[in-house]
Design a protein that fits this description.
Shape: globular
Helix content: 25-40%
Largest sheet: 10 strands, mixed
Oligomer: single chain
Number of strands: 14
Length: 439
């Protein structure tokens, strides 16, 4: 994580928001400029029967335009961002946070400091548009992992008129998402992001490259789609631990791989949305809950156990590079195995991982120790739970009778008990914690 990808490249001079257009059939085009080089992203919102001509749709399209820019800003990462059409005071502050916090990992891995960033443009008053929606019709962004699966099953019990939202950056669907969506048996609304081909060739073109807060962009797209379909809310699947940063620092802030899944993003973007549109909002149904809470509930949803696959290598944009099975070695595989091992027996997990269960591989001890917060082993820059809940998951799993012959787990449990590091109780992890916006 100390690698510096482009230390010799000079930053750009100014990044400009050029403009956007949303057509009546739901095609959104967003245009940007970096020092004279133009970028265009097209987003096909999929639902041709949606009301894309309304003032609410235009207002939400503008928010997508504001957030989607982050993928193109990073190519040159200049200190100046120009928004000629203007932004509100709240939007200006939100955007600066989006770039500084949302790109903190990008800045750290690239050896950059974006703390000098200035958002230029006139002050703007944005009238609040009214979305024509019906109460109690959620749209659930669905990635096919344990979090979104649990949210679907929790929400459908109270609000049955729900639909799944699947956004793709590839023409080839992601198999784990399609398989788990089929198990859910719910309507699926789709959107397709067509990134500018130039940004997909960042290495060849000498651009800066790295992680962007993509969940924030997808949240905005989901809100646009929901409003045009008459749905009053977008229900996210971001849990309590998504708000926890690492100890790494960039741009004057602590690095959090999941910043746009965290509470600070949710709180500030909800306020931006409320200024722009009435009648549609979003919140995370998992905000006050831990990944241990999620794992306990997922363990009971056996219909999904052999359909889901939360492996990083299953979600490469290039379909030819995707694995058709769990790799059993990435940080995500290790975390999912660990947290589920607290509530699922060993044979069940061996079957889920197709014989590649990470806890059965002694060579992965360093990867598991990084999840536990071992000194000198920083938390992975991945969508994983916090260190405290990982420590509790280790102890819960090691105490299971079916795990008495898992040497790696025994060593991890011994480390947790001897380290003196704090371990929250299972009762605490199964209760609500922290602020949230659940209705």
């Amino acid at each position: 994580m100390s690698h510096r990808s482009h230390p010799e490249r000079a930053r750009g001079a100014v990044f400009t928001y050029v403009g956007f257009e949303l057509t009546s059939v739901g095609l959104l085009t967003c245009a940007y400029d970096l020092d004279g080089e133009r970028f265009e992203e097209r987003i096909d919102c999929g639902a041709s029967d949606g009301d894309f001509d309304s003032e609410a749709a235009q207002a939400l399209a503008r928010l997508v335009f504001l957030l989607a820019a982050v993928s193109y800003y990073k190519t040159g990462a200049p200190a100046r961002i120009s928004v000629p059409d203007g932004v509100t005071d709240r939007e200006r502050k939100f955007l600066r946070d989006l770039y500084l916090h949302g790109l903190a990992e990008f800045a750290h891995t690239g050896g950059l400091d974006l703390s000098d960033l200035v958002i230029e443009g006139p002050a703007r008053d944005v009238p609040t548009a009214q979305a024509r929606t019906t109460e109690g019709r959620p749209l659930i962004p669905f990635g096919g992992g344990i979090d979104s699966i649990v949210v679907v099953e929790e929400v459908r019990a109270d609000q049955p008129d729900i639909a799944l939202f699947v956004a793709n950056t590839s023409d080839v669907p992601f198999d784990p998402i399609e398989r788990t969506a089929a198990v859910a048996g719910l309507p699926v609304v789709r959107a397709r992001r067509h990134l500018d081909p130039k940004v997909l060739a960042s290495r060849e073109r000498g651009y800066f490259n790295g992680h962007v807060p993509v969940t924030g962009v997808l949240t905005a797209v989901a809100l646009l789609v929901a409003a045009t379909q008459g749905r009053d809310r977008v229900v996210m699947s971001n849990e309590h631990s998504a708000s926890e940063p690492t100890q790494l620092v960039a741009n004057g802030v602590r690095v959090n791989h999941q910043w746009s899944k965290g509470f600070a993003f949710e709180e500030s973007f909800r306020a931006v949305v409320a200024d722009a549109v009435d009648g549609v909002t979003f919140y995370s149904a998992l905000r006050p809950y831990s990944e241990v809470w999620v794992a306990q509930r997922f363990a009971a949803l056996s219909a999904y156990h052999h359909a889901f696959r939360s492996c990083n290598k299953a979600f490469f944009v290039d379909a030819d590079q995707r694995l058709a099975q769990w790799c059993g070695r990435c940080d995500k595989c290790c975390f999912i195995d660990l947290v589920l091992a607290a509530y699922l027996d060993r044979p069940a997990l061996e079957a889920i991982f197709g014989g590649r269960e990470p806890l059965a591989d002694a060579s992965l001890e360093a990867e598991f120790r990084s999840l536990l917060g071992a000194p000198g082993r920083p938390k992975p820059l991945e969508c994983v739970g916090d260190e405290g809940e990982c420590r509790r998951a280790v102890l819960l799993a090691a105490a299971r009778p079916d795990r008495q012959d898992t040497p790696l787990l025994a060593r991890l449990a011994a480390y947790v008990e001897e380290s003196g590091l704090p371990v929250p109780s299972e009762a605490v992890l199964l209760d609500q914690r922290g602020p949230h916006f659940l209705p």
